[in-house]
Amino acid sequence: MKVEQLFTGCLAEMAYYIESNGEAAIIDPLRETEPYIEMAKADGAKIKYVFLTHFHADFVSGQVDLAKKTGATIVFGPNANPHYDIHQGKDGEFFKIGDVTLKLLHTPGHTMESSSYLLIDKNGKMPYVFTGDCLFIGDVGRPDLAVKSDLTQTDLAGHLFDSLRNKIMTLPDDIIVYPNHGAGSACGKNMSSETFDTLGNQKKTNYALRADMTKEEFITEVTTGLKPAPQYFGNNVKMNKGINTSIDEILHRGTTPLDAATFKEMSERDDILVVDTRSKEEYTEEGTVPGAWFIGADGGFAPWVGALIPNIKQKIIFIAEGGREHEVVTRFSRVGYDNTYGFLRGGMHAWLAAGYEADKISSISATQFANKLKEGSLGEALDVRKESEYLSEHVVGVGNFPLDYIHSNFAEIKPDKTYVLHCASGYRSLIAASIFKANGVKNVIDVRGGFNDIKDTGVELTDYVCPTTLL
């Protein structure tokens, strides 16, 4: 028996590969199919099942393409009604994979079709349970994503309480909990950076599994402090219920090389967005195509694409580091942005060689930031971190303008002012600066190293501000 956890850091997502005696199963696959097919091929195994714990909201899963290529059966739990063929499993149903068995445990609450899968080995032991978004390490799934006219988040939280108490917490304490997400995912409030744990330890450390917790206390705990879900979540759920464009077609179209002249012509169209996915260093040193947004592939790329590009059908062309074009298109598609139409062949070197001008974001060091702040010559400084980060500690006199809500708050921004932006390390502030510039703000400056470096300058910090004073 082989069980592998496949962790994708950008999405904080865990898929699973199970193989036994020539048969394999995948749990919660990403959009791309080849990695799973290659794993099975290396083991001389046939993929028999593709199991889904629920309709995912934060990424587009690849079960339809994977089933089409391998002949595997797609399995969902009760209440799932997608627009493609599945085996709708029943609570307690068993599925054989070689010498091991997966038992479906219907665990509604995060969503009503949510199910966990209990692995039973050939000796009858239960070493693992795959909990999807029902139980995370240190947290549980948020109960507000599947709210409907006849189903409130309180209703869902109540279902989640029952699922945990009746289906999960009754399992052996030494069983390993394998969830679908880890720290950084917006599917929970406060997940651990650990990607698995024993159920027994979770009973001791996870607030939601406290033995003496009442249902009413649980509902209050899990529904308090929920931030609005990223805007693309609803679109991804719809896509996961339907049949989408083949990943192969998306990759073929998206990796079309475009010469500088063609790229320039397309970049000037109102219906096309240019995204620069290179490193922070390349972006700032070489400049970029006028109007391009920076969303670097080496940061939280896919979630920021989903959070910041309002139209999931947006036509996109992009700039990438040489050799990473396939990766970039794949990562766009993971969150449903399927309309990539090509990349700048030769990168910014080709752009500049063609005689076209480049936009650059000005930057200053943390020390320069501190000195100018002290002198009163800085301009308007904005901290683009999340509100929770800002409230925990920030520079005195600097307002909060979270990147997450940049579009809804942009009316506050005056094109003729000078803005100095920082985040924690410089990734989010560059994204914000590029969007400022693309929207007509000429004087925007990024603070290199962000708040992490600013703290070392001795500038005055505070750990509390009244939320009503925020931008």
UniProtKB/TrEMBL annotation:
<keyword id="KW-0479">Metal-binding</keyword>
<feature type="domain" description="Rhodanese">
    <location>
        <begin position="268"/>
        <end position="360"/>
    </location>
</feature>
<feature type="domain" description="Rhodanese">
    <location>
        <begin position="382"/>
        <end position="463"/>
    </location>
</feature>
<dbReference type="InterPro" id="IPR051682">
    <property type="entry name" value="Mito_Persulfide_Diox"/>
</dbReference>
<dbReference type="InterPro" id="IPR036866">
    <property type="entry name" value="RibonucZ/Hydroxyglut_hydro"/>
</dbReference>
<dbReference type="GO" id="GO:0050313">
    <property type="term" value="F:sulfur dioxygenase activity"/>
</dbReference>
<dbReference type="InterPro" id="IPR044528">
    <property type="entry name" value="POD-like_MBL-fold"/>
</dbReference>
<dbReference type="Pfam" id="PF00581">
    <property type="entry name" value="Rhodanese"/>
</dbReference>
<dbReference type="InterPro" id="IPR001279">
    <property type="entry name" value="Metallo-B-lactamas"/>
</dbReference>
<dbReference type="InterPro" id="IPR036873">
    <property type="entry name" value="Rhodanese-like_dom_sf"/>
</dbReference>
<protein>
    <submittedName>
        <fullName>Glyoxylase, beta-lactamase superfamily II</fullName>
    </submittedName>
</protein>
<dbReference type="InterPro" id="IPR001763">
    <property type="entry name" value="Rhodanese-like_dom"/>
</dbReference>
<dbReference type="GO" id="GO:0070813">
    <property type="term" value="P:hydrogen sulfide metabolic process"/>
</dbReference>
<dbReference type="Pfam" id="PF00753">
    <property type="entry name" value="Lactamase_B"/>
</dbReference>
<dbReference type="GO" id="GO:0046872">
    <property type="term" value="F:metal ion binding"/>
</dbReference>
<dbReference type="GO" id="GO:0006749">
    <property type="term" value="P:glutathione metabolic process"/>
</dbReference>
